[in-house]
């Protein structure tokens, strides 16, 4: 049991270290995937398009760096900026969303990449605290299981 807990503890420790060391690559990968999702955004509402809409609605953002990122997409040439960028859904017309100057007043201007990464970084202290607490319980479990094993082994020889 102690060896199993030790193995789990080591796996979690390695995962945490790898996540910390490669955090910049994770950010870069997220940014490139968000750019791809914007480029491939379509009206058929596939899961990538739904994810972009959810991020934009939830975090009150638009595009990767800012709302003008949509101007470089095929979707913009057809329909303008998506409605998920609108500050007020009732005050966003399709004509407003096709004109970048009018859209600036109607949509969220901040980009989603900065908001997502800053939200993740602000929550990392909570995740680290919970992980540290779990690790402490695992270490206590390892120590107690070693003590129990030693106690059982010692008592086995004294019973003669």
From TrEMBL:
Cell compartment(s), UniProt: Membrane
**Organism name:** Rhadina sibilatrix
InterPro entries referenced in this protein's UniProt entry, alphabetically: Tetraspanin/Peripherin, Tetraspanin_EC2_sf, TSN6/7_LEL
Q: Which UniProt keywords apply?
A: Glycoprotein, Membrane, Transmembrane, Transmembrane helix
Tell me the function of this protein: May be involved in cell proliferation and cell motility.
What Gene3D superfamilies does the record point to?
Answer: Tetraspanin (1.10.1450.10)
Using the UniProt record, give the first listed, main subcellular location. Answer: membrane
One GO CC annotation: plasma membrane
What topology does the record note for this protein and the membrane? Multi-pass membrane protein
Membrane-spanning residues = 126-152
- Give the protein name, as stated in the record: Tetraspanin-7
The organism's superkingdom is given as Eukaryota
Q: Which Pfam families match?
A: Tetraspanin
């Amino acid at each position: 049991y102690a060896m199993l807990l030790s193995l789990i503890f080591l796996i979690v420790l390695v995962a945490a270290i790898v996540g910390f060391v490669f955090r910049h690559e994770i950010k870069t990968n997220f940014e490139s995937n968000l750019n791809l999702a914007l480029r491939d955004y379509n009206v058929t509402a596939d899961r990538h398009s739904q994810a972009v809409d959810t991020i934009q609605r939830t975090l009150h953002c638009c595009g990767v760096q800012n709302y003008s990122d949509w101007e470089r997409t095929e979707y913009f040439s057809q329909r303008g900026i998506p409605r998920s960028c609108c500050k007020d859904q009732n005050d966003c017309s399709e004509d407003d969303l096709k004109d970048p100057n009018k859209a600036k007043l109607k949509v969220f201007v901040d980009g989603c990449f900065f908001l997502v990464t800053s939200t993740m970084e602000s929550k990392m202290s909570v995740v680290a605290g919970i992980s540290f607490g779990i690790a402490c319980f695992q270490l206590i479990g390892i120590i107690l299981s070693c003590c129990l094993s030693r106690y059982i082994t010692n008592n086995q020889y004294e019973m003669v």
